[in-house]
Amino acid sequence: MKTLKTFIGLSLVAFNLMSADPKLNVVATLPDLGAVALEIGGERIKLTVIAGANEDPHFVDARPSFLRVLNQADVLIENGGELEAGWLPPLVSSARNKKILGDSPGHILAITGVKLLDVPVGKIDRSEGDVHPYGNPHFMLDPENCLIVASNITAAFSRIDSQGTEYYQQNLKTFSEKMLSKIPQWKKTMEPFAGIKVITYHKSFDYLINYFNLVLYDTIEPKPGIEPSPSHISNLIKRAKQENVRLVIIEPNRPKKTPTEVCKATGAKLLILPLMPGGGNSPKDFIGWYDYIIKTLSESLKN
Length: 303
What we know:
- By secondary structure, this protein is of the alpha/beta class.
- It folds into two domains: 22-184, Nitrogenase molybdenum iron protein domain (Rossmann fold); 191-301, Rossmann fold (3-Layer(aba) Sandwich), CATH 3.40.50.1980.
- It has ten helices and eight strands.
- The chain has helices at residues 2-20, 31-41, 65-71, 88-95, 143-160, 165-190, 206-211, 230-242, 257-266, 286-301; strands at 24-28, 45-49, 75-78, 107-109, 197-200, 215-219, 247-250, 269-272.
- The protein has a four-stranded parallel beta sheet, covered by helices on one side. A four-stranded parallel beta sheet has the order 6-5-7-8, sandwiched between helices.
- Helix 3 (65-71) packs across helix 4, helix 5 runs antiparallel to helix 6 (165-190) and helix 8 (230-242) runs parallel beside helix 9.
């Protein structure tokens, strides 16, 4: 009897310890969202990121293992600009987890409060390619947007885990201070290159280009998600030569054959730039990744 009471007592102590400091089970769809979530959540969360750092975020393979991950999640963080529209909704529906459905407290839309570029006007249909109705969803490449996202995540974590509110708020303050000290450095590094024309494969880097006053001359794709024809590339090369385009930027997952052809014909440099933290040779943490982007981009523009 004494042994049984001792066992029950120890079990209750263990339960209370676990209950006093639970970890939020957080699932982020993309590595950039995961990196910011980790800055805010720190030791109070268990983080799983669905998409790989070198994957195209539009087309992630919906593996069965994702269902288990989503079923056990307390929080789901998604972009919210329909970037994951092709693969995420069926997974969330099949996971049967009320915590992350629709307007549930555990469903975080990173896009909330972010002003998007390239918001389409008029009729939207497939003839215009893979157009996002809310605007360009690659907004995490604007460092100021990341502060908005960090604030959204902090508010959501605090609602769900009220005991951790002070912890999350302090982490937000620390992350924001780091970002606000870095942004002037990044701007100073990129300042000499304002006005330089660049080409991208997809409209993935618009926020980066816009933020640092570069000029997006054109894209390898004639329309979002539409692969280029020989006539499009021929015309692009002719125009890019005349306009002295300096750089062609692509993500690690893009085919290199056509961008290489454009570079050889125009004299531009080819730069493979990671769209997400951990992509290519970049660090997995958000600020380390952005440092890598600015260093790599500026060095490619120097000559």
